[in-house]
Amino acid sequence: MSQPVYPMRTERLTLRPITLDDLDDVYAWQGRPDVARWTLGPGPRTREQSRWSVGVMAGEDALRVEGDVLTLAVVADAGVIGTVELVWRSEADRTAELGYIFHPDHGGRGLATEAARALLDWGFGEFGLHRIYGRCHGGNEASARMMTRLGMRQEARHVESYLYRGEWADQLVFAVLAREWQPPAGG
Questions:
Q1: β-pair partners for 112
Q2: Residue 89 lies in a domain
Q3: Which of 159, 169, 176, 178 has the most Cβ atoms closer than 10 angstroms to its Cβ?
Q4: Residue 19: which CATH number?
């Protein structure tokens, strides 16, 4: 089993496992249409759907076996403002997928990038990953820019590769290797 030492701290943030007490903060963004726009679900979540989601995320506190998800609450002065996650995709290839979602009211200050950098640094440094990749909808320019800021390169644009709300959509794939990774300043 592998997990970060909690809480993880960055210059402005604390990263820790999600708890059931985080429901109000998580629902504050999961219930928004502008957030749901880029998620794979059918639309904004109800409070009960968010309660179920928080329950699932609360159990994602370590990487035990291939396929596990490590989901961390990103805590700022305003409470839980988002989540970052690593999905352990291949033990043999030492590969994981980065995921993240943040409340839009906290955008534009580099907080999502700061949180994701901390998790990638743990993934390469402590967990020993070789490659971390991320995917986003071809139209999600903010997500693509963030992955670029993290030092990830765009490796692919899968044209009309999945059905997204009844229409074919492009998917962008970004990745970074351990040997390319630049740890956060001071890390």
A1: none
A2: yes
A3: 176
A4: 3.40.630.30
